[in-house]
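Example S7 (structure tokens).
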């Protein structure tokens, strides 16, 4: 069985990434959803994004969370994960239990000229695990984005709910694009999806159709390669 895809939902704060990811997970059996705020929330309880040490604490907390998860299971595995740059994406790449499961993750990644792009960890993880990397940049109108930003479901310290800050982000910041950064298919399949008039379920259904199409082609191609190798062995 070929590894299932890694699906990334990128977009501005409040566009609806978490809601769409949750709806998509319900449509894909046995899939896993990694909301970026699972990592951000504990850090945001102590530090603001602009504070010194914010990024370092996020990285360190990832290692600690895996330490407790793996401590009682496999000490050798524990040592392996603790020395990885990013244990979570290493797990997505190498853990055999995750191999047949579609992994959905959410992220707001800006374009930076002078800083590392966190989202590229998804690319490295997909490459290591032999997964398809399918990225959806979710967009919506400014008015709808502002309305969604104030939704009660976002009542969490780490979720932006300040309209003025969102306005500044929309005007002066740009969502990172793998395509514009030079990563082309089949390394990364990237789509821009306007979900202004779509609810989470509707957006998830559109994404599901695209993911299924790519997964089918990916599996067919892998099957052809496998049969070719077997035929070569028989003839030798």
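Recovered sequence:
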């Amino acid at each position: 069985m070929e590894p299932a895809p890694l699906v990334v939902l990128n977009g501005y704060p409040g566009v609806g990434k978490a809601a769409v990811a949750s709806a998509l997970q319900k449509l894909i059996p046995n899939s896993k959803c990694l909301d970026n705020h699972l990592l951000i929330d504990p850090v945001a309880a102590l530090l603001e994004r602009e504070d010194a040490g914010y990024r370092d604490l996020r990285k360190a907390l990832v290692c600690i969370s895996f330490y407790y998860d793996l401590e009682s299971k496999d000490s050798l595995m524990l040592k392996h994960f603790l020395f990885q740059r990013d244990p979570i994406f290493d797990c997505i790449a190498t853990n055999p239990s995750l191999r047949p499961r579609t992994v959905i993750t959410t992220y707001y990644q800006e374009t930076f000229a002078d800083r590392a792009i966190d989202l590229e960890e998804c690319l490295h993880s997909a490459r290591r695990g032999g997964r398809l990397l399918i990225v959806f940049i979710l967009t919506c109108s400014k008015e709808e984005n502002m309305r969604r930003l104030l939704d009660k479901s976002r009542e969490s310290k780490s979720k932006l709910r300040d309209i003025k800050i969102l306005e500044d982000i929309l005007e002066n910041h740009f969502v990172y694009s793998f395509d514009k950064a030079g990563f082309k298919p089949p390394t990364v399949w990237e789509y821009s999806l306007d979900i202004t008039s779509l609810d989470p379920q509707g957006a998830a259904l559109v994404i599901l159709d695209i993911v299924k199409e790519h997964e089918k082609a990916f599996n067919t191609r892998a099957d052809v390669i496998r049969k070719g190798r077997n035929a070569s062995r028989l003839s030798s």
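Notes on this example. The radius of gyration is 19 Å.
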